[in-house]
TrEMBL record:
<dbReference type="Pfam" id="PF00085">
    <property type="entry name" value="Thioredoxin"/>
</dbReference>
<feature type="disulfide bond" description="Redox-active">
    <location>
        <begin position="74"/>
        <end position="77"/>
    </location>
</feature>
<keyword id="KW-1015">Disulfide bond</keyword>
<comment type="similarity">
    <text>Belongs to the protein disulfide isomerase family.</text>
</comment>
<dbReference type="GO" id="GO:0034976">
    <property type="term" value="P:response to endoplasmic reticulum stress"/>
</dbReference>
<feature type="region of interest" description="Disordered">
    <location>
        <begin position="494"/>
        <end position="526"/>
    </location>
</feature>
<dbReference type="GO" id="GO:0006457">
    <property type="term" value="P:protein folding"/>
</dbReference>
<dbReference type="GO" id="GO:0005496">
    <property type="term" value="F:steroid binding"/>
</dbReference>
<feature type="compositionally biased region" description="Polar residues">
    <location>
        <begin position="516"/>
        <end position="526"/>
    </location>
</feature>
<keyword id="KW-0413">Isomerase</keyword>
<dbReference type="GO" id="GO:0070527">
    <property type="term" value="P:platelet aggregation"/>
</dbReference>
<keyword id="KW-0446">Lipid-binding</keyword>
<keyword id="KW-0325">Glycoprotein</keyword>
<comment type="function">
    <text>Acts as an intracellular estrogen-binding protein. May be involved in modulating cellular levels and biological functions of estrogens in the pancreas. May act as a chaperone that inhibits aggregation of misfolded proteins.</text>
</comment>
<feature type="domain" description="Thioredoxin">
    <location>
        <begin position="30"/>
        <end position="155"/>
    </location>
</feature>
<keyword id="KW-0676">Redox-active center</keyword>
<dbReference type="Pfam" id="PF13848">
    <property type="entry name" value="Thioredoxin_6"/>
</dbReference>
């Protein structure tokens, strides 16, 4: 069940994904030409090929129309293409009343502008010929997910259940099944429930109003019940009679209780881990190839129930491809077994202060100590290189940052970068040239700090590259550079003492949560 998480839940809980954003295509809007009578919309691999000439015709002929805006050069679009065609084939085989189409965005600037396309691929769903308010698809880019999302829009998002046999058959289908027990299926709460079910693609939903089913499952009032084939087996969400069914609260409930008490971190589970809206994550690092390490999971799981909804318990196998997670916490595989707790809102990390065996009691005690503010967070820092100040670009780490950046006699310009960041690599020559230009200036220091391996108490870095200027003086002033990244503009900025009119920002890569791989984003910039 550890699958990609429900987009609607993320939206309701205020999440926005780390997807790259592109700039809006330019160009004046024009009146769209009328289609010729009898014109036929072309197809490729079961997908309608649309343009500003035939979109209106397609909307008239297909009451349920999904349109992909793509770019021929876009890598994500190329990866989506076979999945999109497969989704079309799945729906066609079922005779589903929905059609898939595509638009070459760069070739159709009028349409990309009309529909606010700012990145590729973008998928929009049109119903009943309405082109003014299409619904954007933000779910997983897999054929079955796309098809299921569309099925739930042209059909029912929950199975109507009339008897116990139907309930048991539905529960048997998946690891997690959610059934709404409502005494009146015309009530507003039912509409709320079905609206949520439309987007919760990794959960199967049912709904019933049958009194015998209320009795069978021990219910006396409207209740949403989550059945699962692990942990407690069942979790109930009673509907408040006075306030009704709260969509955000129900979303949070489903996220929390659809997860295992202990979730193994991997490519499949990482999206759900970060979508859970549980700010504290407790990680147990173990080597799954060692029996004595595997035995620790029993105690780890035993400690978890009292913290459900407050602390998410995660197991990280150091013998798997999780080196990036170890690096993020400043750990080495040989340090396992060990615990770390992180608050993903503040990114503060905590380690046990005492070396004690990992038991249910010690795990619970560590959690309580962190939650009660009894453990101080730790900061990552590399060791100071012996030659840190020998090159034109000085190398800063956590341990020497304060001393260098806030030197009252120096004007210090620092690049905070990530080794894998393409934008950082692109600006590297200009940064080196800047350092070379000012290498004889005793009052100017050009430096860089790997922000993936070093953390600072003074502030956090939220994107790569980030450029900050620390002017000389006692007031610890910090100026963020937001202009063009070239030697000429850098030089003007330094020569003016950090004063430069702000220009449009150059692109940065936002810092992602710890994913199971290093890929950032699912859209490419226009």
């Amino acid at each position: 069940m550890e699958d990609l998480l429900l987009p609607v839940l993320l939206l309701l809980l205020g999440f926005s994904g780390p997807w790259g954003q592109g700039q809006e295509p330019e160009g004046p809007s024009e009146a769209l030409p009328e289609e010729s009578p009898g014109e036929e919309v072309p197809k490729e691999d079961g997908i309608l090929v649309l343009s500003h000439h035939n979109l209106s015709l397609a909307l008239q002929e297909h009451p349920a129309l999904m349109v992909e805006f793509y770019a021929p050069w876009c890598g994500h679009c190329k990866a989506l293409a076979p999945e999109y065609s497969k989704a079309a084939a799945l729906l066609a085989a079922e005779s589903a009343a929905v059609t898939l189409a595509k638009v070459d965005g760069p070739a159709e600037p009028e349409l990309t502008k009309e529909f606010g396309v700012v990145g590729y691929p973008t998928l929009k769903f049109f119903q009943n010929g309405n082109r003014t308010d299409p619904e954007e698809y933000v779910g997983p880019k897999k054929a079955e997910d796309i098809a299921e999302w569309l099925r739930r829009r042209v059909g029912s998002s929950a199975t109507r259940l009339e008897d116990e046999e139907g309930v048991q058959a539905l529960i048997a289908k998946q690891d997690v099944v959610v059934i709404g027990f409502f005494q009146d299926l015309q009530a507003e709460d039912v509409a709320t429930f079905l609206a949520l079910a439309k987007d919760a693609l990794d959960i199967t939903f049912g709904v019933t109003d049958q009194p015998q089913l209320f009795q069978k499952f021990g219910l006396t009032k409207d209740t949403v019940v989550l059945f699962k084939k692990f942990d407690e087996g069942r979790a109930d969400f009673p509907v408040d009679k006075d306030t009704g069914l709260d969509l955000a609260d129900l979303s949070r409930f489903l996220i929390t209780h659809s997860m295992h008490l202990v979730t193994e971190f991997n490519m499949q589970t990482s999206p759900k881990i970060f979508a859970a809206k549980i700010l504290n994550h407790l990680l147990l690092f173990v080597n799954q190839t060692l029996a004595q390490h595997r035995e620790l999971l029993t105690d780890f799981r035993e400690a978890a129930p009292p913290f459900r909804g407050q602390v998410l318990f995660v197991m990280v196998d150091v013998a798997a491809d999780n080196g990036h997670v170890l690096n993020y916490f400043g750990l080495k595989a040989e340090e396992a077994p060990t615990l770390r707790l992180i608050n993903i809102e503040t990114t503060k990390k905590y380690a046990p202060t005492d070396v004690v065996p990992i038991t249910a009691a010690s795990v619970a005690a560590f959690c309580q100590a962190v939650l009660h503010g009894e453990v101080k967070p730790y900061l990552l820092s590399q060791e100071i290189p012996p030659d840190w100040d020998q090159r034109p670009v000085k190398t800063l780490v956590g341990k020497n940052f304060e001393q260098v950046a806030f030197d009252e006699t120096k004007n210090v310009f620092v690049k905070f970068y990530a080794p894998w960041c393409s934008h950082c690599k692109e600006m590297a020559p200009a940064w080196e040239a800047l350092a070379e230009k000012y290498r004889d200036r005793e009052d100017i220091v050009i430096a860089e700090l790997d922000a993936t391996a070093n953390e600072l108490e003074a502030f956090s870095v939220h994107g790569y590259p980030t450029l900050k200027f620390f002017p000389a003086g006692p007031d610890r002033k910090v100026i963020e550079y937001k202009s063009t990244r070239d030697l000429e503009t850098f030089s003007k900025f330094l020569d003016s003492g950090g004063d430069l009119p702000e220009e449009p920002k150059e692109p940065t890569v936002s810092i992602p949560e710890i994913k199971a791989n290093s890929t950032v984003g699912s859209k490419e910039e226009l």
